[in-house]
Amino acid sequence: MDFLPILCFSVFIIGLIAGVVVLVLRSFEIVPEGSVAVVERGGEFRNVLNPGRHLLMPLDRIRALVELQEFSTTLHADTVITQNATVIALDMELSYRIARYVPQKVTRDQRNRMQPVAVIQWNRIQVRERDVFNAVYNVDNWQEKVRRDAIAMMHDYFSMINLARDIFGNDGGALKRIASSLRDMINDESLKYGVDVTGVKIYNLTLDEATRMYLTAQKRAELQNALRLQEAENQRQIRDTLHMTNDQLLRWWEIEARKEAPPASEANIFIGDEGRNTNLLPSSGPFTARQPSNGGPNERTTTNRG
Predict the structure, then answer these.
(1) CA proximity to 39, closest of 71, 65, 14
(2) What pLDDT score was predicted for residue 191?
(3) Is the entire prediction scored with pTM above 0.70?
(4) Taking Cα atoms as reference points, which of 215, 45, 238 lies closest to residue 134?
(5) How far apart are CA 93 and CA 200, in angstroms?
(6) Which of 16, 98, 137, 276 is most buried by a 10 A CB count?
(7) CATH code that applies to domain 71-104+115-207
(8) Which contacts qualify for 282-290: CB closer than 8 Å, 24 or more apart?
């Protein structure tokens, strides 16, 4: 009977040690490579953990894992309405990530006055703890949020664009400039919750056949008008250089055209009496109506003079 208290105490100590071991083992958390973990204690933000193995206190828990690599997604829009009420469809490739921290070069006095910045480092990449906090606590889902913002701002931006003037009436870099402006607009909003949009690309812009034909005809008319204006300017410069009037210039063009024209054919082709009766052919010249002959109404005569 004397061994019973000792046995109970031994079981208690062994159970206590086992419980501590289990608690310690369960307190170890592994943060995956390329991610950081937001830790809460008692429901409040405590800190952000780097990738690796960490021992958490009993009241600590991981609220969320935030991936640091860059993401890329393609967003498709079927009904984008432009300023001139044209409906187009397009694809937009969006690249985004948690904002990177780039240390600024400051003087010693400025450094002393600045508040210290909590920075997390992974694989030569630095991010601010505040940006990770904003991505977790300021929005429900930061990746879904940046995609929704990109679609909404793309619709708003294209509603201010005249399709004929700003895209088809411009050079080949119009879509690149639009994408660059869209990136700046999205970043103005996304940086508030710690997300940096690194690239926007717009492609596969399509429109209905009627609009395409209209824009093609408009572009052709603008090109022809530009050619006419250029031709008029060239003639004005020639007239001013040669000191000619408009009539003299026209006469000069006529002489030059005759010089370049091929020699006229010497063959005269005669056709039936209908030409003379309908006054479609002259009575003399290289193309004249055939004079009736004694050979009958069906006779055709071709005379090669020369």
Answers:
(1) 65
(2) 94
(3) no
(4) 45
(5) 6
(6) 98
(7) 3.30.479.30
(8) none
- Residue 296 is predicted with a pLDDT of 47
pLDDT for residue 275: 43
Q: Is 163 exposed, middle or buried (0-12, 13-18, 19+ CB in 10 A)?
A: buried
CA dihedral 256, 259, 264, 266 (to 10 degrees): 150
Nearest CA to 100 among 77, 131, 56? 131
Q: Are 56 and 73 in contact (CB under 8 A)?
A: no
- Does residue 283 surpass a pLDDT of 80? no
Asked if residue 283 lies in contact with residue 268, where contact means CB atoms within 8 angstroms, the answer is no
Maximum CA extent, the chain: 160
Task: Return the exposure string of 165-184: e unless at least 16 CB atoms fall within 10 Å of the residue's CB, then b.
Answer: ebbbeeeeebeeebbeebbe
Dihedral angle, C-alpha 19, 21, 26, 28, nearest 10 °: 150
pLDDT tens digit sequence for 7-31 = 676 777 777 777 666 656 566 778 8
pLDDT digits (tens, 9 = 90+) for 265-274: 544 544 444 4
Q: What's the CA gap between 49 and 40, in Å, rounded? A: 11
Cα gap 92→78, rounded to integer Å: 11
Per-residue pLDDT reduced to its tens digit, 29-84: 788 888 999 999 888 999 899 888 888 887 888 899 999 999 999 999 988 888 88
Q: Where are the domains of the chain?
A: 25-67, 71-104+115-207, 213-260, 265-293
**Can you tell me which residue has the tokens 């890329």?**
72
The whole-number pLDDT of residue 129 equals 92
